[in-house]
Design brief:
The chain is of the alpha+beta class. Helix content is about 40%, strand content about 25%. The chain is built from 3 helices and 8 strands. The strands form 3 sheets. A 3-stranded antiparallel beta sheet has the order 3-4-5. Strands 6-8-7 form a 3-stranded antiparallel beta sheet. A two-stranded antiparallel ribbon has the order 1-2. A hairpin with a 4-residue loop joins strand 3 and strand 4. It is globular. The termini are far apart. The relative contact order is 0.16.
Length: about 120
C-alpha cells in the first residue's frame, strides 16, 4: 500500500492484483462518510443522474430497482451491495448539491438540483 506522510493513498486489492483509487464521500448532514472505489462511485453517479434526467423525480427504491435492472440487462457486474453503495453515492450527490430532496415527500423523492 502506497503511503505519503503516513496516510494511505491507494488501496492495493490483493485478490485482483490491481490498485484502486478511493474517494472520500461527504454526508449532507456533515456526518462521517465512507471512502469508495472511484470506479464504483463514477459508475453509480452516472447511472443515478442519467436515471433522474431521463425519468424525473424518484425515490431511492425506484432508482435502485431501475439501475439494478439496467445493470443486469447490460451485463454490468457490480461487486458488493448495489443498494448500499447507491445510498452513499446519493448522499454524496445531495451533499455536493447535484440532487436535492423534494420537500414534504413521503417516501423521500429526489430531483436534480436546478442549474446542474
Amino acid at each position: 500500500m502506497a503511503k505519503f506522510l503516513g496516510k494511505n493513498l491507494i488501496n492495493f486489492n490483493l485478490n485482483k492484483f490491481k490498485m484502486e483509487t478511493k474517494l472520500q464521500l461527504t454526508h449532507p448532514q456533515g456526518k462521517k462518510a465512507i471512502k469508495m472505489d472511484k470506479s464504483k462511485y463514477e459508475l453509480l453517479k452516472k447511472a443515478l443522474l442519467k436515471y433522474l434526467k431521463t425519468n424525473g423525480d424518484a425515490s431511492h427504491t425506484e432508482m435502485w430497482k431501475s439501475i439494478e435492472k439496467d445493470f443486469k440487462k447490460n451485463k454490468i457486474k457490480f461487486e458488493g451491495s448495489l443498494q448500499w453503495h447507491l445510498e452513499w453515492v446519493k448522499l454524496d450527490l445531495e451533499a455536493n448539491k447535484f440532487i436535492t430532496r423534494v420537500p414534504e415527500s413521503s417516501p423521500i423523492i429526489y430531483t436534480i438540483k436546478k442549474g446542474r
